[in-house]
C-alpha cells in the first residue's frame, strides 16, 4: 500500500485525503491546528458515507478510515511516505518553506508535489536538493467529485517522477493532462479570466450575479457560473491567484476592483457566509 502525506487539511487537503482513502491509499494528514484536523476528519467520514450510500464507491467506510492518520508534527506526518502533496494557501513563500522542510524530512525516494493552481513548481523545487522529484498535481474542487488532475512538470522534473504521478492519478481513478509549466497552467489561466470578466460586468452593472451565472450555465453549458465558482473556491484565494497571474502574465489579469473590495470587507465566499451570494 502506497503511503501519502497531505500537508494542509483545508478544503483541498481534506478532499485529496478523501480521494486517497477511497482508492486504497494509506493517508497521513497534517495541519498545524488540532481543530482543523478534527473538522477534516468529520468531513472525510461524512463525505465517504455519502459516496458509499450513493453507490459511487463500494468500500467499507470503517476500514478506509483506519488508514487515515492525523498529525500536527510535520516530521511525523511525512517521514515514511512515497508521495507528499502540499495543499496549503496559495503563497509562494509558504510553499517554499514547507518544501525545504519536507526535503530534509522525507526519504530519498519520496516525490514532493504541490497542489498549486497557478504557481511555479520550478521555483518551489529549486529550494530543495531533489528538484527532479518535484512536480505539481493540481486537483480541482471538490477533489472527490471532479475528474481532472493537471500534472505540471517543473524545469528539472524527470520522466520517472512524471510516470509515478501518472500511476497515482490512475489509481485514484482520475483523468489527467500533462502540462509544461507556465503561469496559470491550463484550467486556472482560462478560468481566472472568465471569472474576472464576470466580476467586471457585475461591477459595471451589466447584469446581476444570478443572471451572469445563468448566462454561462444555460448559454454556454457551464455546470456552474463563474461567480458561484469563485465563491466556492474562496474570494481570498481567487484574489491571490489573480495577483500572481497579473504579476507574471501582465495587465489582462489585473484583479477586478470589486474582488479586492469584497476581500477587504471579509467577504470570502461560501466559507465566510457571504461573497457574490449570501449563504447565511
UniProtKB/TrEMBL annotation:
Which residue numbers delimit the 3-hydroxyacyl-CoA dehydrogenase C-terminal domain? 184-279
Q: Which Gene3D superfamilies match?
A: N-(1-d-carboxylethyl)-l-norvaline Dehydrogenase, domain 2 (1.10.1040.10), NAD(P)-binding Rossmann-like Domain (3.40.50.720)
Q: Where is the 3-hydroxyacyl-CoA dehydrogenase NAD binding domain?
A: 3-181
Pathway stated in the Swiss-Prot or TrEMBL entry: Lipid metabolism; butanoate metabolism
Q: Does the keyword 4Fe-4S apply?
A: no
What's in the keyword line of the UniProt record? Oxidoreductase
Q: What is this protein called?
A: 3-hydroxyacyl-CoA dehydrogenase NAD-binding domain-containing protein
Q: Which organism is it from?
A: Oceanobacillus jeddahense
Please spell out the taxonomic lineage of the organism that makes this protein.
Bacteria, Bacillati, Bacillota, Bacilli, Bacillales
Amino acid at each position: 500500500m502506497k503511503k501519502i502525506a497531505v500537508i494542509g487539511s483545508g478544503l483541498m487537503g481534506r478532499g485529496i485525503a478523501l480521494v486517497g482513502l477511497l482508492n486504497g491509499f494509506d493517508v497521513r494528514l497534517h495541519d498545524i491546528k488540532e481543530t482543523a484536523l478534527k473538522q477534516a476528519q468529520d468531513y472525510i467520514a461524512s463525505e465517504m458515507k455519502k459516496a458509499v450510500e450513493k453507490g459511487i464507491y463500494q468500500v467499507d467506510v470503517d476500514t478506509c478510515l483506519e488508514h487515515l492518520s492525523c498529525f500536527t508534527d510535520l516530521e511525523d506526518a511525512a517521514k515514511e511516505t512515497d508521495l507528499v502533496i502540499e495543499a496549503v494557501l496559495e503563497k509562494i513563500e509558504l510553499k517554499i518553506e514547507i518544501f525545504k522542510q519536507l526535503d530534509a524530512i522525507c526519504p530519498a525516494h519520496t516525490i514532493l508535489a504541490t497542489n498549486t493552481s497557478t504557481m511555479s513548481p520550478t521555483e518551489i523545487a529549486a529550494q530543495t536538493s531533489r528538484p527532479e522529484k518535484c512536480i505539481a498535481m493540481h486537483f480541482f474542487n471538490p477533489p472527490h467529485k471532479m475528474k481532472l488532475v493537471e500534472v505540471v512538470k517543473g524545469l528539472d522534473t524527470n520522466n520517472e517522477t512524471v510516470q509515478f504521478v501518472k500511476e497515482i492519478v490512475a489509481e485514484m481513478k482520475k483523468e489527467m493532462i500533462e502540462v509544461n509549466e507556465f503561469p496559470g497552467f491550463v484550467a486556472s489561466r482560462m478560468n481566472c479570466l472568465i471569472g474576472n470578466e464576470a466580476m467586471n460586468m457585475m461591477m459595471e452593472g451589466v447584469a446581476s450575479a444570478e443572471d451572469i451565472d445563468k448566462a454561462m450555465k444555460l448559454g454556454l453549458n457551464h455546470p456552474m457560473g463563474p461567480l458561484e465558482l469563485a465563491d466556492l473556491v474562496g474570494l481570498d484565494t481567487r484574489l491571490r491567484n489573480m495577483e500572481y497571474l497579473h504579476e507574471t502574465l501582465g495587465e489582462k489579469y489585473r484583479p477586478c476592483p470589486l474582488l479586492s473590495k469584497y476581500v477587504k470587507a471579509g467577504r470570502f465566499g461560501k466559507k465566510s457566509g457571504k461573497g457574490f451570494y449570501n449563504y447565511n
